[in-house]
Every structure is written in C-alpha cells, then in structure tokens.
Amino acid sequence: MRAITLFAATLAMSISAAAQAGGSHGGGHGAATGQPGKADAVSRTINVVMHDNYYEPESVSVSPGETVKFVVENRGRLVHEFNLGTPAMHEAHQKEMQMMVAHGVIQGGSINHERMTMDMGNGHSMKHDDPNSVLLEPGESAEVIWTFPDDVSLEFACNVPGHYQAGMYGEVTSE
Ligand SMILES: [Cu+2]
Questions:
Q1: Is 107 found in the same domain as 134?
Q2: pLDDT for the residue numbered 131
Q3: Count of domains forming the chain
Q4: 69 alpha carbon to ligand 1 midpoint, in Å?
Q5: What gap in Å lies between CA 154 and CA 174, rounded to an integer?
Q6: What would the pLDDT profile of 116-167 be if each residue is shown by its tens digit?
Q7: 65 C-alpha vs ligand 1 centroid, how far in Å?
Q8: Degrees, nearest 5: CA angle 47-51-55
Q9: How far is the CA of 95 from the centre of ligand 1 (A)?
Q10: What does the DSSP assignment read for 114-171?
Q11: What are 19-39's pLDDT values in tens digits?
C-alpha cells in the first residue's frame, strides 16, 4: 500500500514538472523567435536560394521587430526545407523529419503529399504546414513572412536528415 502511494506521488510530481517545462518553453519560445508576419507589415523581401546542401545567402541580418518576406527557391536536386527557429527547435524537428523519411513522405527529390496527409493511426499526420517553415521539391518556391523579436538569435535551417549536419543552416542576426 505504501509503495503504491509513493508511486502515485512520484507520478503526480513528474506530470507537474512536465507541465511546467512545457509552459516555460512556450513563453520563452515566443519571445526568442518572433511570430508569423502579416503581408501589409513587410518592410523588406529577402531572396533565399536553396542548393544541395547550402543556402545563398549564408546568413541574414534583420532590424529589431522587422517583418521580412523570405522568397525561398529550391534550385537543388533534393527536397529542402527553410525553417526559422532556435538550434533546439531544429534538433527536435530533425527527429520528425527522420520519421517523414522513414514513412516515405520525403524521397530524395520528391515529396509524397498523399503520405504526408495520411493519418498515422493516432490522429497525427506528417503534415508540414508550420508558419515558420516551407518544405520544397526541386524547382519549387514559396514565401515565409516572419516578424522578428527585438533581440534575434535564430537560425534558418534544413532539417531533412543529414542536411543540417552537412552545413545547411545560416544565422539570423540583429542589425
Ligand atoms: Cu536540405
């Protein structure tokens, strides 16, 4: 009986610890990264070209609070991603991308959109529609509009397995 009570107490503690970690992560995350921007707030357009496996330009500098429209074009022969986030966010996203490859959603130079929207059986799918990123096949282009915070410390990165490790990321810094 005593052991069961102790177990329940430990479980309750670990749940609240997880909830707290989630809460502080959410708050810090918004402050550090910024938010999706509105088209009428865009002050500048930055063209980004994706190659196998690097970006052009290699880094980007923005003003505090600036809203930027990134026009991203994939001129490589592989699927590439443009994703704005912290290194920790990219690391977490790389695990999701590994699943996408394992499930055949990303196959070298193509994206299987049918598999991407398929229900994985737990209500989740492999949809890739976060406002801070685009995932593009060769020849495709897309826009990301983003409002940066005052103090920027971000990376744009490609989290297709192996690409970040090959150097496919760049720094976003404050001007
Ligand atoms: Cu890539």
A1: yes
A2: 93
A3: 2
A4: 20
A5: 10
A6: 888 877 777 888 889 999 999 999 999 999 999 998 889 999 999 999 999 9
A7: 28
A8: 50
A9: 14
A10: HHHHS--SSS-------TTEEEE-TT-EEEEEEE--SS--EEEE--STTTTTTT-EEE
A11: 333 333 333 444 578 999 999
Whole-number Å distance, alpha carbon 51 to ligand 1 midpoint, is 8
Q: Are residues 20 and 77 in the same domain?
A: no
Sign of the Cα torsion 167, 168, 172, 175 reads positive
**Which range marks the domain in which residue 56 is found?**
35-174
- Residue 116 Cα to ligand 1 midpoint, Å, equals 18
Q: Are residues 25 and 39 in the same domain?
A: no
CA–centroid distance, 103 to ligand 1, in Å, is: 18
Q: For residue 39, what is the DSSP state?
A: G
Is residue 62 domain-shared with residue 8, that is, in the same domain? Answer: no
Mean per-residue pLDDT of the chain: 85
C-alpha 129 – ligand 1 centre gap (Å): 17
Centre of ligand 1 to C-alpha 110, Å, is: 12
| 50 and 91 housed in the same domain | yes
28/51 same-domain check: no
Residues 41 and 28 occupy one common structural domain: no
Give me ligand 1 centre to Cα 114, in Å: 21
Residue 135 CA to ligand 1 centre (angstroms): 9
Report how far ligand 1's centroid is from the alpha carbon of 55 (Å): 9
Query: Does one domain contain both 26 and 98?
Result: no
Please state the pTM of the whole predicted model: 0.80
